[in-house]
Structures are given as C-alpha cells and as structure tokens.
Design brief:
This protein is mostly helical and about 120 residues long. The chain has four helices and no strands.
C-alpha cells in the first residue's frame, strides 16, 4: 500500500471514528444498554488508534521502505474493517455470533504492528 493511499484511508477512518464516537455518545446512549455501548466505544477506540497507526506507517515508509510497511498498513486497515466493523454491527444488531470474527481483526492488528517492528529491524 502506498503512502498516499495509507494517508487517504487513515484520514477517512479517523473521520468515521470521530463521527462514530460522537454518535455513540449522543445518539446511541439512549438506545443501547451499557454493555452494547461499551462494545461500540471499543470499536471506536481501536479504529482511531489504528487509523493513527496508518498515518505513522505512511510517515515511516520513506525511512524504512515501502515493502514491509505497505503490508503493515494493509493489515491495520483490514483489522479496522474486521475488528471495529464486526463490533459496530454487533452493538447495533445484538447478533452475538459476529463476535466470533472480531479476533481475526485483532490478529490483523497484531500482524500490522509486528510488521512495523520487522521493517525497523530490517532497515540498516
């Protein structure tokens, strides 16, 4: 994934995360119970943190190279879609089996961060 695409996707994800956080705090507070609202907020936090991670990866590409870091940014984006996406749907729908795919997104986050460390280690 290129620096430009990472920044675009990171910016879009930050926009969505801020909007989802505000929506959860104001629009869903009266609709969801405390457990589902906590799930919603977890999705927002992880989306926001990993969108910032994607910005960081884009900034690191000139220093450590695009090969490994492109994969790191892709893994973070996939993690956002699967992890946060499944939690958003779970909170809104109450369909519990969606929680079974959430850890796949978590593994994508872990892979992304490991790839960041690997890229820095491999750089001379």
């Amino acid at each position: 994934m290129s620096e430009r695409l990472l920044v675009i996707l990171a910016g879009i994800n930050m926009f969505i995360a801020v909007g989802a956080g505000a929506f959860g705090a104001h629009g869903l507070k009266q609709i969801l119970d405390a457990d589902m609202l906590a799930i919603w907020q977890t999705a927002v936090i992880y989306q926001m943190v990993h969108a910032l991670g994607m910005f960081a990866v884009a900034l690191l590409i000139p220093k450590f190279g695009p090969a490994i870091l492109g994969w790191a940014g892709s893994a973070m984006f996939i993690g956002i879609v699967i992890f946060s996406g499944s939690l958003y749907v779970l909170a809104l729908s109450g369909v519990r089996f969606l929680g079974a795919i959430t850890p796949i997104g978590g593994l994508a986050f872990l892979a992304g961060w490991l790839l960041v460390a690997w890229a820095a280690y491999k750089a001379q």
